């Protein structure tokens, strides 16, 4: 009987389909319910989703009793409430204590992951609403009610009051307030999601097969190779040799000057082949004792006087006799490589890689069957590459660095990201410092052309900070308009519009840890403060945002307001 060699690839985790979400994307939960992604964690581990419709258009939070296990939240400063992100834990506590399907925590589909949002989760939703409202309606949902507009949070103030947030179009929009628990208000459920929920890996054997297992009949020493690729674009290639007869393979590492011929290690390259700096890979096969022997040359072509090499590797990268496992810039001087003096800088980006092993016996007789099993050891390597997120670090070279990767050799922080659009690559970043802590906005009784003028009902809808700042500076010099001239406009910094500034202040709890990490100036979290926007409410008034994130029209000649510039990227 003719025996076959069976090679199986077994993954140690369940793999389905990987999704790389952006703000405004439609998310489908395992039970089929849908929502819109409105927040992504800076570390890329997942985010928050808002339901397409209200779970209730009017229900009580509960009765007038203090819920055990649920901390009473003080209303002294709104930033303290914005530290509460425990919507799931709060909802679970409420449901166990109240046991009432008609209360706010009872109307959400908790069994399938939907919860009554915490103050931070609901405030974030309010801040993101201008950017996801169209996505909600496009998916067949409805925007939060802007008439009565009071929505329950999962936090309580005391035994008689719990917190609501106003989505109404008025001067109290976005304001967290204690409301009688027996009042009837709206409920809009949210849920968390994780990039670990849906993971994908594909398989490619050197035989051309794309299934986890293959069956072959080796008649001589043969090396079988499987490449496992993750949805994030990384791959690991491993091989297994079944010894029937001897086989040889070897890799040579060498370097040559640009535009110089190379002869060595059995390889010959012309001047034309070495005309471009970087890495050249050549392979040749020889017959050794009747079996193929494979030799590979990895040749570094160096420029004079400096070579800058960009490399992306998964897990680790071997260069200049060393193995690197961290991203960064690495420079090595070569005084006499190939007869040329040169310096080589490697800009290395290390991504996650699956760790794969093949287990089997390694020697068989001709025609015998053997089973090979390939196994992924580290499921975390199956994560996709993540987009730019709130709280990331914008560097002076306009690159983006995750807080978990900071510091990075050769990088200098420029700002902190507080908004990312649906591309996952562009948005706004705030400056690391206040430009001033006390300054007037500008001359009164002048309605500046092309600067957005708003009413009290739509103060936070203005997102045109750059054009506003440009128009203000074109109208008068620093003495007349000190707030707009306090920013470094020539290098891209501008006075944020009211909508941009409101969005920034709402995200204090998400940006302050990064500001502290890069030795910047955190936004104040207590006391009274006010920041100027570039938005007008008339000839005499411009918009300030205060410590409770209320937007008001203040006299332009009034001093004592801060300036924190932002930039687009």
Explain how this protein is built:
By secondary structure, this protein is mainly beta. It has 3 domains: 31-194, no CATH class; 201-379, no CATH class; 393-568, no CATH class. Helix content is 12%, strand content 37%. The protein has 7 helices and 36 strands. The strands form 12 sheets. A 5-stranded antiparallel β-sheet has the order 28-27-29-30-36, covered by helices on one side. A 4-stranded mixed β-sheet has the order 12-1-26-25, with no helix packed on it. The protein has a 4-stranded antiparallel β-sheet with strand order 2-3-4-10. The chain is flat. Residues 8-18 have low confidence and may be disordered.
- State the domain count: 3
In helices, the fraction of residues equals: 10-25%
Strand order of the largest sheet: 28-27-29-30-36
Q: Strand tally, please?
A: 36
Count helical runs. Answer: 7
Note the overall shape. flat
**Mean of pLDDT:** 83
Helix-strand makeup class: mainly beta
CA-atom Rg in angstroms: 30 Å
Would you identify the regions where 5 or more consecutive residues have pLDDT less than 50? Answer: 8-18
Give the strand content: 35-45%
N-to-C terminal Cα separation, in Å?
A: 67 Å
Largest sheet: 5 strands, antiparallel
What is the compact description of this entry?
The protein is mainly β. The protein is 12% helix and 37% strand. It folds into three domains: 31-194, no CATH class; 201-379, no CATH class; 393-568, no CATH class.
